[in-house]
Amino acid sequence: MQGRVEDIFIAESGGAPMKRVAEIMAIADAGLEGDRYMQHTGYWSATDECQVTLIEKEALELIDRETNLHACNGEHRRNIVVAGLSLAEIVHCRFSIGEAVFEYDRPRPPCSYIQSITQPGMTRALSGGRGGICARVVKSGKIRVHDPICVLKDSSVPSTE
């Protein structure tokens, strides 16, 4: 199974607009360079911080088609948009994106805060398994738009859920 990176987004601080980037450094045990959660300035930094968040492009396109919301330009507030890969396939796995290695951490369900800074209805639209996942950076490296996402052999991560 293999997907690819469709988009990469970061925000400098909690509530700041998401900024689309073509490439970024993933830093082991920290997150994405310049992102709010690596800098511990995100809305959830004190209570529920994720190093990196991923979401499926297909889920965002479905939201755009089925609602009057716009979800494909960073409104989802997730870092990496993946295409051609169900995130359910990488639960409890290690995987590579470009030069970096990540491991699944936990699901990332949406919260009511997300719609307070985007659009009313965004929390509901991202519910039902569409909210994405959190991942930890295991090995630093550069990631780029269109990089492949590959599950690593013998990469099972013990469940903490």
Sequence-ordered SSE layout with sheet pairings:
Elements: E1 2-10, E2 19-21, E3 23-27, E4 31-32, E5 52-56, H1 57-66, E6 80-83, E7 94-97, E8 100-107, H2 112-117, H3 122-125, E9 133-139, E10 141-144, E11 148-151
Parallel strand pairs: 5-6
Antiparallel strand pairs: 1-2, 1-6, 1-11, 3-4, 3-10, 5-9, 7-8, 7-11, 8-9
Short summary of the structure?
Helices cover 12% and strands 34% of the residues. The longest helix is centred in the middle third of the chain and has 10 residues, at 57-66.
Detailed description of the structure:
12% of the residues lie in helices and 34% in strands. The chain is built from 3 helices and 11 strands, in the order E-E-E-E-E-H-E-E-E-H-H-E-E-E. The strands form 2 sheets. Strands 1-6-5-9-8-7-11 form a 7-stranded mixed beta barrel. A 3-stranded antiparallel β-sheet has the order 4-3-10, with no helix packed on it.
Keywords:
161 residues; mainly beta; M1 Pyruvate Kinase, Domain 3; seven-stranded mixed barrel; three-stranded antiparallel sheet; 34% strand
CATH superfamily assignment?
PK beta-barrel domain-like
Cα shape: globular
Please trace the helix and strand order, writing H or E for each element: EEEEEHEEEHHEEE
Main sheet: strand order? 1-6-5-9-8-7-11
Tell me the count of domains.
1
Q: Percent helix among the residues?
A: 10-25%
The CATH class turns out to be Mainly Beta
The main β sheet shows up as: 7 strands, mixed, barrel
Low-confidence stretches: none
Name the beta content range.
25-35%
| Overall CATH architecture | Beta Barrel
Q: Write the CATH fold name.
A: M1 Pyruvate Kinase, Domain 3
Structural category is mainly beta
Gyration radius, in Å:
14 Å
**Total strand segments:** 11
